[in-house]
Design goal:
291 residues
Length: 291
């Protein structure tokens, strides 16, 4: 379909930019495009939802996709940077469907520690400065569309709407968060600020943030009506929302002492069988992390 091909072309362009070693603006100038169009996820998604809303047939007539708006259940998922995209777009996606549609967001990784959990004051200040710099660069080069309820709550302070703050306060569609407590990707970011920061340090801060999810119906700035699910293995693997051992075999013991995988916890939560908060201690003691 035309929209799919357009998305593929943008993916190829972004891949070329990442291989080039150039800044976003210099690469965009070299290929003759507006730099903000290199980060056009929401707009592509809007086009996809519009195209699929009434059902479509492939160009060759071989495949027919039923009307998306007739779906009874929608699971909107993303890993790594995709989880950030889910954060700022999940409520918008939910608004495109009838109220009767069962919509959930599944976020895999990219949960930065909430600032108050970072006990090293110097590192906390450095981290906040990095987040602000990232926000400013994003505004300059990406023309991002952020969660509107967060922007409405923090009028005049759009930089308050970091991904973690938005996820913990302004996403009102039900969501499930998986985050490895010792995420190697996140650890490397903190160690680039201060090499003495250990994985256990980062894990402690991430765990404290993960433990906030069960309380969001009472602590969030917006009305979070359904308690989010949370799965926090004491592992270092960045993402796990794939058909492999990290989805099925990496486990954390639930409160009853039963080992549960990401798959187990997510399935239980999606079935509506109860609140899920399966999070290891730090240092980890109840996780099994595959080799």
């Amino acid at each position: 379909m035309a929209t799919r091909r357009a998305a593929e072309q943008w993916r190829e362009l972004i891949d070329a930019w990442q291989r080039s070693g150039l800044t976003c603006r210099r690469f965009a100038a070299a290929v003759g495009v507006n730099p903000s169009t290199l980060f056009n996820g929401r707009r592509i998604m809007e086009a996809v939802v519009e195209e699929l809303a009434d059902g479509v047939t492939s160009d060759d007539g071989a495949e027919t996709v039923p009307a998306l708006t007739n779906a009874e259940t929608v699971i909107f998922s993303g890993s790594s940077a995709g989880a950030s995209g889910i954060t700022h777009n999940l409520d918008w996606v939910a608004e495109q469907f009838p109220a009767s549609t069962n919509i959930s967001g599944v976020l895999d990784a990219t949960l930065n520690p909430e600032s108050s959990t970072i006990t090293n004051e110097t590192v906390a200040a450095q981290w906040d400065a990095r987040l602000l710099e990232s926000f400013q660069q994003s505004e300059l080069t990406r023309d991002p569309i952020r969660d509107q309820s967060c922007l409405d709550f923090h009028v005049g302070e759009p930089d308050a709407c970091t991904t973690t703050h938005t996820r913990l306060n302004h996403v009102t569609t039900k969501l499930f968060q998986r985050m490895a407590l010792l995420d190697s990707h996140l650890v490397s970011h903190f160690q680039s600020l201060d090499p003495t920061v250990s994985p256990i340090d980062v894990g402690t801060w991430v765990q404290a943030t993960m433990l906030m999810f069960p309380d969001l119906p009472t602590t969030a700035e917006d009305d979070v009506g359904v308690t989010p699910g949370a799965f926090g293995p004491g592992c270092a693997e960045h993402t796990a929302l794939t058909n492999d051992i990290w989805f099925f075999d990496a486990t954390v013991e639930d409160p009853s002492g039963t080992p549960r995988s990401f798959h187990d916890a997510l399935a239980f939560w999606l079935e509506g069988s109860g609140d899920i908060a399966i999070i290891d201690s730090v240092p980890p003691t109840i996780s099994v992390c595959p080799d």
